[in-house]
Amino acid sequence: MKFAVVVFPGSNCDRDMYYAAKDALGEEAEMLWYKDANLDGYDAILIPGGFSYGDYLRCGAIASTSNVVKQLREKADAGVPILGVCNGFQILLESGLLPGALLRNEKLKFMCHFEDLVVENNETIFTSSYKKGEVISIPIAHNEGNYYCDEETLARLRENNQIVFTYKNNPNGSVADIAGVTNEKGNVLGMMPHPERAVEAILNSADGLKLFQSLVQNWRETYVAGA
Amino acid sequence: MKLVKVHVTLKEGVLDPQGKAVQGSLNTLGYDFVEEVRVGKYLELTVKDDANIEQQIEDMCNKLLANPVIENYEYTVEEGVTQ
């Protein structure tokens, strides 16, 4: 399986994402500079965290106008798995690829620590290796991770099972403790916590690895004969 | 030339933790009558004359300058200084 990691000016989790796919998972991965990126031929696209364009205007807003996001829209429509973490999540929201928005943390603090997440939906291509209700330990590192959507959107998210991860102890004020959501089709996942920073025991948790393993397993079942 | 002044504010009902902190500080300074503060953004755009300017500004606000999920915008168009 071949992963693309899209690198924006100000991305800083691109190497972690690359490491997770290439080294921890043992699959093919490439880092693509946003300006030259051609997303054709990749089986999954990873949008890493960081501070694209210095968080100017709103986190992810400037990146969402780039040409590579046009390609992302086409790939999302075509069903290619897309994972956006942290600033990557912000970019996907600003692009309209996912519903909702992210506000400043309720307590106005940049927070950087491990959080317990609850796997609310394990019937996605990102979470099929987890058990439903499983509690996993994944680090967060953000200042604008306070997920917001109106009640109508929240009802729709619940109805379509788009809430994939929630916080066990909500750290940032997110509506309905939401830590990660998918699009309606289920092939685009955005989340504030960093699964790519929890892929081996030496990082204090390997709970994030199963997310990447789920992607590989689902890809194999769909595209590799006899798998 | 025209000078476009855009105000972007958080929608009613969207929590503004920053505004809350500013309000708390103002109260601490003794301004007890301040009941609420909402922090927003102000942008100035100098643009060439365009027959369709209002529609264009609204497009810009919806696409980039504001996030319609959480923010409202207001704008005025004034005569700008010709250079």
UniProtKB/TrEMBL annotation, chain A:
Keywords: ATP-binding, Cytoplasm, Glutamine amidotransferase, Hydrolase, Ligase, Nucleotide-binding, Purine biosynthesis. One of its GO terms (biological process) is 'de novo' IMP biosynthetic process. The keyword Cytoplasm applies. It catalyses: L-glutamine + H2O = L-glutamate + NH4(+); N(2)-formyl-N(1)-(5-phospho-beta-D-ribosyl)glycinamide + L-glutamine + ATP + H2O = 2-formamido-N(1)-(5-O-phospho-beta-D-ribosyl)acetamidine + L-glutamate + ADP + phosphate + H(+). Its main location: cytoplasm. Signal peptide: none annotated. Part of the phosphoribosylformylglycinamidine synthase complex involved in the purines biosynthetic pathway. Catalyzes the ATP-dependent conversion of formylglycinamide ribonucleotide (FGAR) and glutamine to yield formylglycinamidine ribonucleotide (FGAM) and glutamate. The FGAM synthase complex is composed of three subunits. PurQ produces an ammonia molecule by converting glutamine to glutamate. PurL transfers the ammonia molecule to FGAR to form FGAM in an ATP-dependent manner. Part of the FGAM synthase complex composed of 1 PurL, 1 PurQ and 2 PurS subunits. This is Phosphoribosylformylglycinamidine synthase subunit PurQ. It comes from Gracilibacillus ureilyticus.
UniProtKB/TrEMBL annotation, chain B:
Its main location: cytoplasm. It is found in: Cytoplasm. Gene3D superfamilies: Phosphoribosylformylglycinamidine synthase subunit PurS. It holds the Pfam family PurS. SUPFAM superfamilies: PurS-like. It catalyses: N(2)-formyl-N(1)-(5-phospho-beta-D-ribosyl)glycinamide + L-glutamine + ATP + H2O = 2-formamido-N(1)-(5-O-phospho-beta-D-ribosyl)acetamidine + L-glutamate + ADP + phosphate + H(+). InterPro entries: PurS (IPR003850), PurS-like_sf (IPR036604). The keyword Coiled coil does not apply. The keyword Mitochondrion does not apply. It is an enzyme of class 6 (ligase). Keywords: ATP-binding, Cytoplasm, Ligase, Nucleotide-binding, Purine biosynthesis. GO terms for molecular function: ATP binding; phosphoribosylformylglycinamidine synthase activity. It comes from the Bacteria. Its EC number is 6.3.5.3. Part of the phosphoribosylformylglycinamidine synthase complex involved in the purines biosynthetic pathway. Catalyzes the ATP-dependent conversion of formylglycinamide ribonucleotide (FGAR) and glutamine to yield formylglycinamidine ribonucleotide (FGAM) and glutamate. The FGAM synthase complex is composed of three subunits. PurQ produces an ammonia molecule by converting glutamine to glutamate. PurL transfers the ammonia molecule to FGAR to form FGAM in an ATP-dependent manner. Belongs to the PurS family. PANTHER family: PHOSPHORIBOSYLFORMYLGLYCINAMIDINE SYNTHASE SUBUNIT PURS. This is Phosphoribosylformylglycinamidine synthase subunit PurS. It comes from Gracilibacillus ureilyticus.
